[in-house]
Amino acid sequence: MTEPRDAGSRPDRDATRPGTAGHFPWVAAGWLLAGVGVLVIALVVGGGRPKPAAPGLPDPGMLTGWGLPIAKLAMDLAAVGAVGSLLFGVLAPTRAGALEPAATRAVRGAAACAWAWAVAAALTLAFTLSDFLGIPVTRLGYRDNLAGFVAEVTQGRSLAVVFLLAVILAATARGVRTLNGVALLLVLAVTATLPPALTGHSAGAADHDIATSSLLVHIVAVTLWVGGLVGLAVYGRRATTPALGSAATRYSSLALWCFAAAGFSGLVNAWVRLGGIAPLVTSSYGWLVLGKIAALAVLGWFGWWHRRRTLPALGRKTPGGFRRFAAAEAAVMAATIGLAVALSRTPTPVPEEVDRQSTAQALIGWAVPPFSWSHVLTLWRPDALVLVAAATGVVLYLRGVWRLRTRDLRWPVGRTVSWLAGVAVTVFVLCSGVASYAPAMFSVHMAQHMTLTMLSPILLAMGAPVTLALRALPAGRRGEDGGRERGMREWILTVLHSRVVRVVTHPLVALALYVLSLYAFYFTGLFASAMSSHTGHLLMTFHFLAVGSLYFWPIIGLDPMPRRLPPVGRMLLLFASMPFHAFFGVIVMTTTTVLGAEWFAGLRLPWLDPLADQNVGGGIAWAAAEVPVIIVLGVVFAQWVRADAREAKRTDRRADAGDSRLSDYNAMLARLAARDESGR
Asked: From CA 311, how far away is CA 286, in angstroms rounded?
């Protein structure tokens, strides 16, 4: 069957030239209308449309009722535009370290989108305050109410953070001219999309930990996926065809990962909100979920078509088909975002308020039965954020090993086993019964803490993932128009050689972070704050893994680091933390004051004595310091022996080859020996 020809399939005489603006304003208007139109239809069909309040009840009015979801949609679309603009700047090739002209325009566009993002966040904040107080937005006393709403209500606080980050992004974007600066702005922009996820449906209901983590994954994946395509559609019009082809090819790999993460996290979040299969077809919320599933399937087809047809056409320097197809796909994505905003305004089948069967369940989000080892093995709470990160790490690692084998390069099996074991241990303590009991029992929490800061980093470092990546990843390619890509290999090297990494991996800095953060976390109010919110729990988990990795990665010494310590230095660094850990364990074991007393008292678990359990946790902290010492000493000693053996072999090879320096040295020793003999 002959492939149909279209205008985009004909070879262009000026294929390497930037495209023209064309009818882009109309295309952008079509994206906006698609998002708003689907939002309005979904609100009407799903039952989330604003309705007049009953007589005698506070009524924010129809302006707030319709203005709030539209302002949220505008905020989401502006965020997608800012992230997509910066992502295009990162993906586009550079010339002698300078940004492509199209990438420079993308950074300026990111600044404009960030200003729109800030305005939309301010409007959303005003409408949310109106909805919260039940007062029309035109009659609000902002001077009296806004400061208190931002300071005391999580929704107000999150929107204020978004507004502040968007303003910072807008103010700094126009002054950025380097690829590293654009990458930092991209991280800032993605971070600014996360605060609202911590205060919506997912954050206030039962199983809020599962729902919130899945929503965080969903937001990051969708924002990068949609934003990247919008960036290609907008700034690819005026980029050269080779530059567009390079950026589109790299985006395609990212889009596949985002598609998988968005689909998985969306299903997890929908399951928590629906509570089963039946509400999928019996509730209006379920109908909207089915609409999102259908949209995801359509977008998956778009991605398949891009890989099959339009990307090869870009390689043949015929970009017209890709540009038109990307514009159509972006319209579907905008409609899907409108559907997602409507879902956030639609009542869920599972009540948002936690069923207060017990105080502990109301505070934590799930029931905590009396402790037993069988519950540790069976009470699993799969965390989408952890599972996605773990699956990504395993797949990328195994793919790197496979790439080396296809080039007939050997990779030690022990390193692969260590990496997989480190991932498995991390998943176990964050998703099994350990995670179920950790918020309620200090002893289980401490076991989780010690695992994340000691055992997991050691096993992961023994896998040498950085070394594997540098060996398996190809170098960035040079484009036909002289531009050069910065691939993942170059990004890893850039991070390794950065000043920040050089500072935080300094042995004294890593030791200070590892030891001082232990005391600062538990002997201040940080511990109780982290236990009482899922946001705090996520930050706590990241902190444990980060400080443990910064400390043990240089000690293991398999990966390249800014400073490589000799074996003796690594052993000294290892032993330096032991007294501090032991002293911390003794303090916790012997104290009569319960750490985080207000949190554990509020749980009211009749089967648990918080002070006795804390003493057990102190014993775990004291004893756990011995485990990494045994493992790391064995690893460092084995590396020391192998290094001496390699040096001896090199010396022997030089001797066999007739190394003149070694021969001169041996001759000198012989003369000295003869002189001593003659003097006797």
From this structure: 36
